[in-house]
Amino acid sequence: MFGTGREGAGLIFPAPWRKSHIGIGEGVLRLWFDDAPSAVRPLRHGARKSAAPPPPQKDGGGFIERLTRTAGEGGEERPPRQRWHGIDNDLSIPETNARRMRRAGRRSRWWRGRWAAMTSARLPDAAPANWVDRHAPERLRPWLKLGRFDRPTGIWLLMLPAWQGIALAAAMRGAWPSPRLLGLFAAGSALMRAAGCAFNDIVDRDIDGRVARTAARPIASGQISIGGAWVFIVACSLVSLAILLSLNLMSLFLGVASLALVGAYPFMKRITWWPQAWLGLTFNWGALLGFAAARGGPASASVLILAAGAIAGGAEVSLFTPGLPWAALLLYASGIAWTLGYDTIYAVQDIEDDALAGVKSSARRLGPRAPRAVLAFYAASLGFALAAWRIGGLGWGFLPPALLYAAQLAWQARRLKLDDPALALRLFKSNLLAGMALFVAIIAGHWRG
Predict the structure, then answer these.
(1) What is the SS3 assignment for the chain?
(2) pLDDT (tens digit, 9 = 90+) per residue, 129-185?
(3) pLDDT score at 171
(4) pTM for the complete prediction?
């Protein structure tokens, strides 16, 4: 409502509990709040640079800011701007340069504190005692969080299928898995997961800002620029490529092919209700890669150097790699079904936010049927794992740990509740035990007694 009076004009914006007033007079802008109903508060004409601040209102309260005009009337000399700040109608003296400098210093200290709070704040799905928040230097924390090093569950879930593939290839020969390969795939999984998460955050930066669980991620919150994130991705990818070049040629081909899966994943949640299935294709690719690497053979870097030399000498070069057996493909299928189950559980945390942001997920698609669907996914995972055991010719030592794998998955499906995101996160993290149980089962299967 707008009102005028002999001494000025004013605007009233009514609210249920109080009225707020904005008054405009000659050269004066004032804002105040009034807890009691009130008519328009008139403003004084004639306020000038040299005028003393007006006396406090008796029945008002709140924040008042007074600004005098910086231009005079009729071509008079332009007076300098003066500013008053006051709380509860207690107006202070005009602000001096020294006071402005002190306020600027306070803002600088506030921003440094705000930045420290952002870089040190624990992300919602990170462990309370994660090593990044506790021990990492403050300047490195945003970069480590960009690569999800504060949440190692994802590293394990990417690494375990690769370890299972290495163990399967060794068990089919009646041998133990190579510690060297296990170490290389552990490092490669951490690096490629970091690169994939950074790429995902670049693509999803607008969506992440609208989802409570992801709003504090380094890119969405502005702690890391897009260019910096790309540098991070390239650095992680180059180290991962060096690891691939130390493996055989089939491993190199599979590793390069996985980039198509990694690059397409962030867009799946926009075009399909089943991005969790695509994540299963991506995260369990390591089962094929690990199986291929465990077969042995010369390093791909050496093969490529020899091939390049032969081509330069005018020779015709053909490169061949052996195919993958059905046991390896069945293990890959088992991992896809496993990921479809545990990532549906993970998506339960974001059902409401995903609906508001327009993001698709299996949890939203399934709704109340999600617990039964997760149980079906896990049953399929167990079935494919048993098929890999039989076709791969593994021993009976596979079965006791496999029963633990089945029991752990069934426990997750039975406990899942759509209205309990905290429980969903705990169930998701418990898949470390499930994946490790299947890894141990495959190792134990090399005994054929």
Answers:
(1) CEEEECCEEEEEEECCCCEEEEEEECCEEEEEEECCCCCCCCCCCCCCCCCCCCCCCCCCECEEEEECCCCCCCCCCCCCCCEEEEECCEECCCCCHHHHHHHHHHHHHHHHHHHHHHHHCCCCCCCCCCHHHHHCCHHHHHHHHHCCCCCCHHHHHHHHHHHHHHHHHHHHCCCCCCHHHHHHHHHHHHHHHHHHHHHHHHHCHHHHCCCCCCCCCCCCCCCCCHHHHHHHHHHHHHHHHHHHHCCCHHHHHHHHHHHHHHHHHHHHHHHCCCHHHHHHHHHCHHHHHHHHHHCCCCCHHHHHHHHHHHHHCCCCCCCCCCCCCHHHHHHHHHHHHHHHHHHHHHHHHHHHHHHHHCCCCHHHHHHHHHHHHHHHHHHHHHHHHHHHHHHCCCCHHHHHHHHHHHHHHHHHHHHCCCCCHHHHHHHHHCHHHHHHHHHHHHHHCCCCC
(2) 678 888 889 999 999 999 999 889 999 999 999 999 999 999 999 999 999 999 999
(3) 96
(4) 0.71
